[in-house]
Amino acid sequence: MSDRYAKYDKLKFDYPAERVLRITFDRPETFNSVDAETHTQMTDMWIDIDRDPDINAVIVTGAGKAFSAGGDFSLIESMIGNSHEIMKTWKEARNLVYNIINCNKPIISAINGPAAGAGLVVGILADVSIAGKKAKIVDGHPRLGVAAGDVAAIIWPLLCGMAKAKYYLMTCKPVSGEEADRIGLVSMCVEDDVLQQTALDIATELANGSQSAIRWTKYSLNNWLRQAGPIFDASTALEMLGFMSEDVKEGVLSHREKRAPNFRKDCPI
């Protein structure tokens, strides 16, 4: 493994084919949840990937039965009522999305189970997103008591339309791999036993194609996302504002106690 990625020790890196880099969320005991250090690493690594002259395509997947369960409770609880941590996380959440958008290499996600939160950012923002039939995609922010931030507002309406985006983002209902394919939320859904090989085949094809043509195509298409930058910035800022509220305390507690949340019914906004 190149020393280029040695510092990203919270993630697993390997080369499954020539000029193909594979990144694996590798905390299967927690369904590959993202702690504070992992969040920082998965934000910063895209800059090194963009500059790496030895790779032409990237695969992202998860170890075990999950893609990534998103931010773990230790990360979430460190933010509640803590303006310093909120500002730090807001900056990383913003940079994570923009670093992926601006990374010149095509990114292929192999979504092999539950995908939520920060992990879902990579899964759904990938240039080619492939879901296994056991995939379960969910943006659970409102269930936690904060606005749907991360990558929701910048990409969901563009992929599956505003009506579906509002329904799934406000209700936090999970989307299966097959349903995600049907509504256009992912590029395709395949049988679970061929998911990884399908991702590798596509990555290899892209790695062997005209790199200037592929990279300029990605850059051009991602201008749709850059146009939505103000929408994304607002949604992420509102998500962070929610971490100063009473609702997020109840949201986290209800998750820990495995019960439905009891949010206040009145709201001044």
UniProtKB/TrEMBL annotation:
User: Gene3D superfamilies of this UniProt entry?
Assistant: 2-enoyl-CoA Hydratase, Chain A, domain 1, Lyase 2-enoyl-coa Hydratase, Chain A, domain 2
Similarity-based family: Belongs to the enoyl-CoA hydratase/isomerase family.
Q: Which SUPFAM superfamilies match?
A: ClpP/crotonase (SSF52096)
Please state what the protein is called.
Enoyl-CoA hydratase/isomerase family protein
PANTHER family reported for this sequence: ENOYL-COA HYDRATASE, ENOYL-COA HYDRATASE ECHA15 (ENOYL HYDRASE) (UNSATURATED ACYL-COA HYDRATASE) (CROTONASE)-RELATED
One Pfam family matching this protein: ECH_1
Mind telling me which InterPro entries this protein's record contains? ClpP/crotonase-like_dom_sf, Enoyl-CoA_hyd/isom_CS, Enoyl-CoA_hydra/iso, Enoyl-CoA_hydra_C
